[in-house]
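WARN no homologs supplied; continuing
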Amino acid sequence: MFHRALAATLLTGMSVSAAQAEIAMPFALDWKFEGPAAPYTLAVDKGFYEAEGLKVTVTEGAGSLDAIPKVATGAFPVGFTDINSLMKFLDQNPGAPVTAVMMIYDKPPFAVVGRKSLGIETPKDLEGKSLGAPPPDGAWAQFPIFAAEQGLDMAKITVEPVGFPVREPMLAEGKVQAVTGFSFTSSLSTERLGVPPEDITVLLMSDYGVALYGNAVIVNTDFAKKNPEAVTGFIRATAKGWKETIADPKTAIDTLMKRNPAADEALETKRLGLSITGNVLTDYVRDHGIGGIDDARFAKAIEQMKTVYEFNTAPDATLYFDASYLPTDGSLKID
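OK structure emitted
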C-alpha cells in the first residue's frame, strides 16, 4: 500500500510539475478562422505546441495591423502580421518590444481584386474608378508602392474607406469596381457572393513590381528574451503544422471547422490551397525551408518601402526580423 501511495504521489507531483512548466503563449491571428489559419489550429489539436511545453490558444484578428499592438503591449506574446506594417509601427514607436521571428508568406498575398465587367483588368484600369480599401488592411498599406511601380495617378482613383464586412459585398454589388485585400480572401469571398470566377480580376502586387515579404510570426521581445526556448519551440511546432497541412489539408481544415462551423468547408479548403501554392510554398522555401528570409531581398524591400514611406530614423533590418530564434535542427525543411 505504501509503495502504491508513494507512486501515486510521485505521479501526481510529476503531472503538477508538467502543468506548471507549460508556458502560456496565446497567438493572435491577423484575421478570422479561414483556410490559411488551419496550420495553427492543426498544430494545437495535434499537440505540436504541447509537445514543446507550450499552452497555445489561437485567437481571431481584425486585420493585418491588429496583432502588432497586441504583441507590443504584451497582451499576446506572439501574433501574425504584415512585416511591412511592422516596419512602420516600429518607426513610429521606437523601442517597442516587438519583432518578427518567422516568415510565413514568402510571397505576399497583397492584391487588388476587381471585376472585368466593371472595367478592371490591368492596374491602369483603376484610374477613373472607385477602390474600396479598409484602412487597417495590409494590402491597402502597400498600395502606394504598387501605384508608384505602375505609374498610377492616385488623384484619378476614388478611394472609399470601407469596413472589412462590407468590402466584398460592395464589390459584388458594383458599388466599387475594385478592392484591396489578400488574394485568397477577397477573390473567394467575392465569388461566394455570386460573382462568377471569370468576372474576377486578381492583380497580385508582387507580380507588378512590389518586392516585399508578407505576413510573419511576431513576438514580444521582452517575452522572447525571458523565454528563448519557448519561442524556438513555437516556431518548430508552427513549421510542423504547416508541413502536415501541406501533406494533408483535409485534416487541417477539419480542425479549423471546429472553430468556425459556419464556414464553407469547400471554400476554405480552396482558400488554404491558394495560400499554400501562391504564398507559402515558394521556390525559396522549397530550397531553404519555411521561416527564414533572404537578407539581400529584405534589404531591397526596405529600399522600396522608403520610396513611399518617410522613415523618421534610418531603417534597420535587424529591428524588423530576428532569425536567432529559428531552430537549427532541420525542422524547418519542407520535403
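Residues 110-207 form a domain with the D-Maltodextrin-Binding Protein; domain 2 fold (CATH 3.40.190.10).
OK
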